[in-house]
Amino acid sequence: MNFMPKVFRLAVLILVVFQLSSLQRPVRITFVLTSPDLPDDTKVFITGGTEQLGMWDPGKVLMESKGNHTWSKQIQLAGPMSIEYKYTLGSWEREGADATGAPLKNLVADVKGDTTIKDNILFWTKGVRQKVVQGQITGTVKYHRAMKGEGLQNRDLIVWLPPDYDSNKTARYPVVYMHDGQNIIDPATSAFGVDWSIDETADRLIKEKAIPPLIVVGIYNTGDRMKEYVPGDKGTAYMNFIVKTVKPFIDSNYRTKSDRENTIVGGSSAGGIISFMLVWEHPDVFAKAICMSPAFKTPTSMGSGWNYAKVVRTAKEKPGNVFFYIDNGGVGLESQLQPGIDEMISSLKAKGYVEGKDFVFIHDVNAKHFEADWAKRFPEALTIVMKH
Asked: Does domain 26-124 match CATH 2.60.40.10?
């Protein structure tokens, strides 16, 4: 009488195991590019936001010529994911272009299983790629060059001052410290000619009285950015640099409110996790963090690495009176970051933090992993953080 139930239970168990294993099954993608005007012996490359695609190195991943103006490349990913990619002829001076000669936007593939992706490119950029600068600097900024940190490369700071800084000599101001400083205010130094427009945003919100007047400090990144912005020795050195060098320097040279309640830190992607870490590990210095598209957990496309959500979940103590603004998009790399964000939110709730009181999460499903998209969300982020 028990034979059928046992067989049924065994079948269910096998099915569950099969389903779980299939979720982790590697995915093979074959990219096939056709470019009618390219000779068959042309070296064509594919690049994108995964290690298998060279992490945006335009001359690393060579495609194989198949003749008849066609090239192919097969890669294997850890599992289903959304990826962004481009084709080049070995450098950013020669990348796929539209009919006007302008570089094509990133191509996006939402990969759910083994697949072949076919693309056609008719034009390629020619000569030196000119960076098109959009925007300007609004307000007063100061630059501090070659700041030194122990065990780190030197870097610059850019400081934006509120509209009444020079006229109101007795006033003191909250400070927002931002990573990737060259990308937040000055479009001429931004990596892609598009900055976060934090100067325009802060200026407008202050004049609208949506936020109090404040100072923004942009800390430039270096070639060691990825090591400095995630857990590890470089990340610890970078946090110490901010806490022991940058903040004391700013407090000594500008009229700041130096207490923790008026000291905020923010950034995007890896800059989002290091912002969270600064509040979590230095709550005596920072009380609030803006974590935009944060890489709380290593994306599956990058293999093994860190999981700060687990650090939070297993911590014996938790900082009190802190606030985290967390957001994310939904296109390309953003979708790869979402599992880590979901896990972090679960960890925060498990620790007793209350959504809406101790943290917020905003999901813009149509947003990409790009400065312009972070710039669009920053006014709301800054307003929310300054009200808590």
From this structure: yes
